[in-house]
Every structure is written in C-alpha cells, then in structure tokens.
Design brief:
about 250 residues, alpha/beta
Length: about 250
C-alpha cells in the first residue's frame, strides 16, 4: 500500500490536463510524493463535486484517456495520485446511471447499497423497501391528475414519468399496464419482455438487470419503427388522459 508523504493540489478542471501534466517534473523536484487531483469524475458544474456519473472522467479533464495520460505523466516522475471525492456531494441526478438504476429497480438495484438509503424506516414501517423523494408540490392524487405524465425517453430507451422539469424511470415490470391502451400488435413484444422482469420484492439484482435488458431491446425496436412508435405514442396519450403523449427524445 502506498503511503503519501507530501501532496500538492492540482485543480485539473481549471488548468487542464496538459498544463497539469507539465507540472510533474517540478512537483517531483519539490519532493512531492503524490498529486492531490481535484474532482475528475463527470459532473454538472465547473467545481466538479456534484458528480453525475461516477464511472467516467469528465470531459474537462480530457475524459478517461486524458486522465490516464495525466496519471502516466505523474508516474513517470515517481508521483502517485490522490483523488478528491466527496461522496455526499455526488448528485442524485437522472444523469447518474447508478442513481437511475436505483430509481428504476429500487432495493433490487445493483447499486442499492451505494447510496445512504434507509430501506426500513422504523418510524414508517409501511414504507419498507420503498424510496421516497420529496418532490411533489401537493398530494399525489392531485399531481397525477394535473402534472404527471408517462412518456418514453428515446435515449435510454425507457418509459418515464415526467413531473415539470423532473424525469423518473418507470419500473420495467409494470410496462405491461400500458397494453390496455394500445391497439397495435407491434407492441406485444414489449409487454412480453416486461412480463419476464421479476417484481422488486425478493428479486435478485442480476435477474432484474438481465430481464430489463430484454425490455430495452424491445423498446429500442419500437422507437426505431415509425409505425410502432406512433402506436406507443397513442397508447401513452390515452393513458395520460389527454390524447397526447409526453413523449420526447
């Protein structure tokens, strides 16, 4: 295990990877053992702490390739790297794929233990296994009638619930509920794939992940087929009670 002896902070997001790399010989001459590198993960701001995707380096630092090059340049001078990560600043954003996975699969998510979530609140046993977010402006009944719509996110793809400027994933196991509003046989493949997704209660993360991959494949075929996509748009419009769907790419 490497033990840092002395560190020097490099605000990589501000100066860029090339300039940071150029400091390597200077830091080594100073007797620095490790470069303390500012947040490098993909974030939503210049300061870099509100991490959106913890699995990749931000474009501000040249992405994964740029950061790997910086690490090599430092290693060539005998320097190690300390990463500046503050977990409680990592954003619960739909752009964070781990958080999206938790919203989509709940306790059965592969990442359910990565977040500080009280799945068994002692003061509210009726909420056992549920994730409650304080986002509604009034009662659920009122908001679902006036402000919540079901649509499709073409980029993932996935069925989503939209509430003003917020987007939340729909549990893939429930996609079949839309079938009652559809008249197009081309959508049957989606409902069939959704029926194979285990329910959250007692479901294994791997089982849900594999079955959800099948749902994504079926939905991808639909959004790429103009006739099938039109049928899905119509079904969601009827489900929303407006005749128009909140479908957007």
């Amino acid at each position: 295990m490497r033990t840092p002896i002395s560190t020097y902070r490099l605000q990589v997001g501000s100066i860029g990877v090339a300039e940071a790399s150029a400091y390597a010989p200077y830091l080594a001459a100073l007797g620095i053992s490790d470069a303390y590198v500012s947040p490098v993960l993909r974030a939503g701001s210049d300061h870099g702490y509100d991490v959106l995707d913890p699995s990749v380096a931000d474009d501000r630092v040249g992405g994964d390739a740029g950061f790997a090059d910086l690490a090599r340049r430092l290693a060539d001078e005998g320097l190690g790297v300390l990463l500046d990560i503050v977990p409680n600043h990592m954003a619960v954003s739909p752009e964070n794929p781990w958080w999206w996975d938790v919203l989509e699969h709940g306790r059965a998510s592969r990442f359910a233990t990565f977040f500080d979530i009280t799945w068994e609140p002692p003061e509210a046993p009726e909420l056992s296994g549920r994730l409650v977010l304080p986002v509604l402006g009034s009662s659920f009944g009122q908001e679902v009638r006036s402000s919540i719509t079901i649509g499709v996110d073409d980029t993932r793809p996935a069925l989503v619930a939209r509430y003003h400027d917020r987007t939340f994933p729909i549990d893939p196991a429930t996609y079949g509920a839309v079938e009652a509003w559809a008249e197009e046989s081309a959508l049957r493949g989606l409902w069939s794939a959704a029926s194979r997704v285990p329910w959250r209660d007692g479901a294994q993360a791997d089982e849900r992940s594999q079955a959800t991959a099948g749902v994504r494949t079926a939905l991808h075929r639909i959004v790429d087929d103009p006739a099938a996509r039109s049928a899905l748009v119509s079904a969601l419009g009827l489900l929303n009670g407006s005749g128009e769907s909140a479908v957007a790419a």
